[in-house]
Design goal:
This protein is mainly alpha-helical. The chain contains four helices and two strands. The longest helix is centred in the first third of the chain and has 57 residues. Belongs to the MICOS complex subunit Mic12 family.
Amino acid sequence: MAAYVLAPIAGAFVATSLIYSMRHKVRTDTQAFVTALQQSRAVLDNLDEELSAGSEASGNRQKVFPPSYVRPTRPTLAEEMKARWNEHLTGFIKQTSEIEWDSVFRNAYNKVKGVVEEVAPSSESAFSQISGGATLRDPVPKAPGDPRLLQPNTYYLGQGTSLR
């Protein structure tokens, strides 16, 4: 009967001593590893300071040991919004540069002329009073003092405004 009592106690003692010895071994190895890493870091820092002191005199400081892995950075929310805004703005500018503005102004002019003709019974006199008698294709009279109006392909829009 004593065997039934001593066997579990002996097993618990052996298991506890194995766990303790393994824990002690891991702790001492970890402490030795940490000490070795701290010493190697101190040596590398000293070496970096010595090498950088020599290269600072020549004017170009370089890191002696570049990192083996640099984690890629993600853009911040503000940078992402700026990038999207710039994409939309670039697209808008590209689209507006592809528009044939001459035909747009001609169509708008014809529509305004049609509305004025519908509203006023004597449309020719009302429209000529609004536009001053000039049309979109009438060349601007050459003014001696304004060099902008001396350029070719300049058309009158009204009140001194020109479209080139």
